[in-house]
Amino acid sequence: MKSSARIGMILAMTAVVFSATGCNKLRARDQLNKGVQAYKAGRQEEAVGHFKEAVAFDPALVNARLYLATAYATLFVPGIDSEENNRNADSAIEEFKHVLELDPKNVNSLKGIASIYFNEGNPASAKTPEIALQKLDMAKEYHRKALQLDPNDAEEYYSVGVIDWTQAYMQAANMKAKKGYKVDEEIKDKAVCADVKARNEAIVQDGIESLQKALDKRPDYDDAMAYINLMFRRKADLECGNPAARQADVNTAEDWVKKTGETKRIKAEKLANQPAGVVAEPQ
Fold this sequence. Notes:
Blueprint: H1 2-40, H2 44-57, H3 62-75, H4 83-102, H5 107-120, H6 129-149, H7 154-178, H8 190-217, H9 222-236, H10 243-272
């Protein structure tokens, strides 16, 4: 009898636990739905509150954590250095990382983290050039993680190329300015040119290769074409003491300017000639 009573008590307690768990999951989904409504209405701070409640009720609810991270990311304003703004960026990254703990293949979280680091690495946002370069490196790392999950994502290759160009431009501009050169001016001083080359050669090469991969995946990717033009202008910096090679890089850059313009023209004509009601394919 005592044994039966104990078993009955255990079963009753188990039922209570499962009931409480079920109720918490329902509460979590209710808060998630309220948060989504607030988010879509543009009430981001209210949405954050609902998503935090949803996560508290059900920490394993991936969508709640993903929405929470996205809401924080929306509240983050690039270029503003304030405690609250920086906290929103940090909170977004933290929540995206929580999503990845639950779902390591969540590519949207990888892209979300990369985007925040990229915005923090903007020279207008970062406190020092060194911090900017570090943030850009971190952004590039997460874009490459996304590419491991989807090697055919042209936009991710493009993003890596944009970061490479941003880093190369920043470094070239800073190093040239210290010696009195403008950013696109040819470096006559061999020592200065060698320093710029040592700092930028690998980045420039990676940028050109990444942008070319973007074009391999999407041949009419005009934004990638525009950045290849810019990358070849940075490559021209590296042709120390070789004016013919420098001019060849500048000529290649100009060729890409023409290709970009022609591609944009063709795409615009196709869009203008589409029958009414036809939705253009995403580019």
